[in-house]
Amino acid sequence: MNSKAEQSAGATTGADIAKYAVSALLIIAAIVIGTFDPFGLAAPLPTVIGLVGAIAGVALLLPTTLGRRASGYLGEARFELRKVVWPTRQETTRMTLVVAVVVVILTILVGIIDFLISGGMRLLLGN
């Protein structure tokens, strides 16, 4: 039987593995050049080289099995995000204020507890 016919659609091929390796090298090189600028290049050049390398590395991954699976996953995630019922601006503002008030109250309570414990320790230690 033909070996290509036996491979399942989701199998990783040798070409995919080579693409993974080259892609990883491109992305790592992009991060190193964009972050550390080992060659002392002019100001925007390391960033541009880093971005181009990262984009090339990711683009190289897209036609692989892993890339197709990741693309499918991201597509499904976008589909699910469309179903989310997002809070209104008024609800968001109200909940933000509630969180801020609770944080202030808890901060005051922790401060009071700290003050009482430190006062008690001073009494116990005689300072």
TrEMBL record:
Subunit (UniProt): Component of the Sec protein translocase complex. Heterotrimer consisting of SecY, SecE and SecG subunits. The heterotrimers can form oligomers, although 1 heterotrimer is thought to be able to translocate proteins. Interacts with the ribosome. Interacts with SecDF, and other proteins may be involved. Interacts with SecA.
A cellular component term, taken from the record's GO annotations: plasma membrane
NCBIfam families named among the record's database cross-references: secE_bact (TIGR00964)
InterPro entries for this protein: SecE_bac (IPR005807), SecE_sf (IPR038379), Translocase_SecE/Sec61-g (IPR001901)
Gene name tied to this protein: secE
Family to which the UniProt record says this protein belongs: Belongs to the SecE/SEC61-gamma family.
Keyword Kinase listed: no
Taxonomy of the source species: Bacteria, Pseudomonadati, Pseudomonadota, Gammaproteobacteria, Lysobacterales
BP term (GO), one: protein targeting
Function: Essential subunit of the Sec protein translocation channel SecYEG. Clamps together the 2 halves of SecY. May contact the channel plug during translocation.
Keyword tags: Cell membrane, Membrane, Protein transport, Translocation, Transmembrane, Transmembrane helix, Transport
Principal cellular location given in the protein's record: membrane
Entry protein name: Protein translocase subunit SecE
Keyword Kinase part of the UniProt annotation: no
Transmembrane region(s): 20-36, 42-62, 97-117
HAMAP family documented for this protein: SecE (MF_00422)
